Each structure stands twice: as C-alpha cells, then as structure tokens.
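Support request, priority: normal
Reporter: lab tech (M.K.)
Component: structure prediction queue

Hi team, I submitted a job for 3-dehydroquinate synthase from Flavobacterium artemisiae yesterday, and the status page still shows it as pending. I've pasted the exact input below so you can check whether something in the sequence is tripping the parser. The sequence length should be 355 residues. Please let me know if I need to resubmit or if it's stuck on your end.
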Amino acid sequence: MQSIQANNYLVHFNHNAYEALNKHLKENKYSNLFIIVDDQTNEHCLPKFLPLLETDLTIEIIEFEAGEANKNIETCIEIWNVLTELGADRKSLVINLGGGVVTDLGGFVASTFKRGLDFINIPTTLLSMVDASVGGKTGVDLGNLKNQIGVINVPQMVLIDTDYLETLPQSEMRSGLAEMLKHGLIYDAPYWRQFSDLKSIIFDDLDELIYRSVEIKNEIVIQDPTEKNIRKALNFGHTLGHAIEGYFLESETKKTLLHGEAIAVGMILESYISWKKNLISQEEYNEIKIVIQGIYDQIIFEEEDIDPILELLVHDKKNEYGLIQFALIEAIGKIKINQSVENKLILDAFQDYKS
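Reply from support: The job had stalled in the queue. We restarted it manually and it finished. Here are the results:
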C-alpha cells in the first residue's frame, strides 16, 4: 500500500511501515529509545514489534495501566518522572505502541517533555488506526471532560500494521468501526454504504477500508490543520458522544462505554437533530439509525441521566463564545458545521433514541 502524505509526516502501512521506521532510525542520531505501552499492548503487541526493530539504541519500555480512566495528567507525571530517571534527553525518541489512549497520552508526554521529543505512533486498535493516526491531536482528559488538556503536534511518522488487529476482541473492532461510519456519513456516501451489510465484508477487505478511512480524515485535516473550519466536520457524533462517554466513565452505577459505543449513540442523536433541522430527510435518518443500531447494542438512559450529560456539553472544547457548536449532516456524505441546537431538540433526540 502506498504511504499517505499527511501534514509534515507520512502514514506507512504494513510491511512498508517497518522499512520506513528502520530507515528513520538509521538516518537520525537518537540517543536512546523509549516505547510507551499499556499493559495490554505490552503483552499482545510488543512481542511482535520488538523483533522488527533494527537498532543498537538502548530501549526502555514504559508501561501504564490500560483504559480511558488512566488518560490523565497523573499518568503523564508518572511517565515524565520515569523519563527523567532513565536519562531521556532532547535527542531521545518516543514510540507510542497502542490504542488511542496510548497514542494521545504518549504524544502529549513526548510533546511537552523538555519542550518536545520526537515521537512515532504505532496504533494497534482499529479506532486508533482510523482516528488517532491522522491530525496530530495529543492530550488527556480532565476528570470526565474528554481531551481538555493537550496540544496539536505531529509525529515523525505513523505506522499502521493491521496484523495487530488479530489480538482485538470484537467489542474493540466495533468501537473502531464507529469512526469509519462517521467518515462515510460526513464525506463519502459510497464508503458509508459499504457498511450497510457487514456480513458482506471479509477481513481481507479491511486493509482497503482502513486505508480509505485514513485518506478521508487526512484530506479534511490537510485543509484545516488547527480546526478553525472544515476539520470541525470530524466532530459529527462527538459533541453528544463525548458527553455520554464522560458521564458513563465517571458514574458509579454505569458500565464504562468504549469510545465507539458512545460515538455511535452520538451519531444517531445528531442525525435525528439533522433531520429535525431539515438538513436530511426522514428516510436518510432512518437508514442511519437502522445501520448503526444493527451494529451496536442499545444504551439504556434513565431520565436522571440526561441533565448531567447536557451539563457536560457546556465544557465541550469545541464551544465558541459560550455557544455549543455541532457538526451536523445535510445529506449522507455532506457536513454542515457551526450549528447551534436548542436543548429541547437534544431532549427530543434522546427520547427518540430511547423509543
């Protein structure tokens, strides 16, 4: 597969990825190499990755506990301290091997330690391959507020090897699929319709579907690297989805949702809003709802859940001048950004979802 040119770096695929990595290591005089993993990727992915490295550099492995609950500044402080103790300097290289939590947090750690170390991302989940691989967003959560602390800073390269997906449970695969569905809904109607019958998709097709998803996100980000305009399209499903994800993460009575599970709900809710604002037809809304509900389990919302979710919207990082900003679709494959939505319409969307 041909590498994809992103903003000042390349996304390499499968076998070509390791050739590019080893060439980069030979051409750059790094002092040492730190690989950031969580406990899951340390067990399942690191044993595959290490034998493919061709380097004489001293390699140190830094592990933290997996899960969104650990994507916080406290984990960063622990890793910054470890980097200090192990003698990391400005010529050290950080490789982040893992899902979106690892690449987001590891990228932030590298970008801020000693005012910035080179880093390379190797996403190992479907979600991180099609989402965190492009755009340079790094960061951590602030309590239950998603991605409130962070910087945009691009890696030296991104390596996508779909062999890592063989270690994933089906729930994680479905989580990643949500971002792929989103890319179709906001940008590419034929791509969206490839997912209307999942039974027809075989694993061999996955490389091409991932490649197209990365292309779509990259085409959007290149136009607007710092999210002042069209890049906001990528927030479809995420305004409500992130609030739902944050609420379930902090709740003592709710089961924590995977990112894609929350975004799937957010896409249904925001598609309903798009319909009620006369941006899409009822037929398009029904199509979206049927496809997404055919993939993801229904999430149960009690009446007392809705107000706390709406309160989290006030802190959404996409808000401007105190107004909540939605990216809505005005046809399958077409987006409309900077849309304000009254609370009643959001409540109606939840009622429709629950019904």
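The two ends are 44 Å apart (CA to CA). The longest helix spans residues 203-223. Let us know if anything else looks off. Ticket resolved.
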